[in-house]
Specification:
Number of domains: 2
Distance between the termini: 77 Å
Number of strands: 15
Helix content: 25-40%
Number of helices: 7
CATH superfamily of the largest domain: Metallo-dependent phosphatases
CATH architecture of the largest domain: 4-Layer Sandwich
Order of helices and strands: HEEHEHEHHEEEHEHEEEEEEE
Strand order of the largest sheet: 1-15-2-3-4-5
Length: 286
């Protein structure tokens, strides 16, 4: 049988470079998956929390922005929020970063606080920046309600919401953090919808001691690499490997619902996101 010399050379070259071709193919797939996972999405949840016949209340939850870039003057993120026409916005910590400049975060919060009631709690990175008093004063100055062991009652239509909030415990003792939580809860009314805004999702054993209807949190970044189909994070701070509380709605043992946002961090974090789109969370309360 005749086989051309050219065919033989081609086959030899293919075998020689097969390993390299596989390597670059895998690398390309990783880069594509990472780029795709940077694309923001809007996740919507409907929660049955309001007894009787009422107009739904729409909450937008924003966490872990880390002053990352979403278009010139944050226009794309602002448009995404405006499209939802929220009744209130919850800012669940790490809106500012400890390394990136504040510009993007300020563009965003200034724009949305002019249109919607906004409520904020601190995250660990804001404490790491050593600028928490400055950040709180700035936010108060533009009309954002800063929650730190207190509760703000909001009347939306004929629905009363108690929005409670606690500081991130990074620079606090456990006792000090629990005192904030106790103080906030003591200001709630059991005829209202009681919501806790707290940066940390892993403190479920504490949240289960209170009768909040809803806890809103972030912090985990969905484990950075969210494992498909099982909704676990490869590794999340304060949860470790195979992190459980990373994305979506969880029902705690006392019946409290907890929403954990994947957050909006992108260039602030060295490790790329995989199967883990940054998100704006929309909560419709019925």
């Amino acid at each position: 049988m005749y086989r051309s010399k050219t065919q033989g050379v081609g086959s030899s070259l293919l075998k020689k470079h097969k390993g390299r071709i596989i390597f670059y193919g895998i690398l390309l797939a990783i880069l594509i998956a990472s780029a795709w996972s940077w694309v923001p999405v809007t996740e919507r949840f409907s929660l049955d929390l309001i007894p009787g016949d009422h107009v739904p209340v729409r909450i937008v939850l924003i966490t872990d922005l880390h002053s990352c870039y979403y278009g010139k003057e944050m226009a794309s993120l602002i448009r995404r929020v405006d499209k939802e026409e929220p009744d209130i916005i919850l800012l669940g910590g790490d809106i500012f970063d400890d390394k990136l400049p504040d510009d993007n975060a300020k563009f965003f919060v200034e724009a949305v606080s002019e249109k919607y009631p906004c409520f904020y709690v601190t995250g660990n990175h804001e404490y790491w920046s050593e600028r928490v008093p400055e950040i709180k004063e700035y936010l108060k100055g533009i009309g954002v309600t800063v929650l730190a062991g207190d509760c703000s009652t909001v009347d939306i239509g004929d629905v009363m919401l108690d929005i409670c909030g606690v500081d991130d415990p990074t620079r606090m003792t456990v006792q000090g953090w629990r005192e904030q939580l106790d103080q906030a809860y003591s200001l709630t009314d059991d005829t209202h919808v009681r919501i806790l805004l707290s940066h940390r999702p892993e403190l479920t054993s504490v949240y289960e001691e209170y009768d909040f209807d809803l806890v809103c949190a972030g912090h985990a970044h969905a484990g950075q690499f969210r494992i498909p189909f099982i909704n676990r994070g490869l590794y999340a701070p304060n949860q470790g490997s195979m992190a459980q509380y990373v994305s979506g709605i969880y029902e705690l043992s006392n019946g409290t619902l907890m929403e954990v946002s994947r957050g909006l961090a992108r260039e602030s974090t060295p490790a790329p996101r995989y199967f883990n789109h940054p998100e704006v969370v929309v909560l419709d309360l019925y």
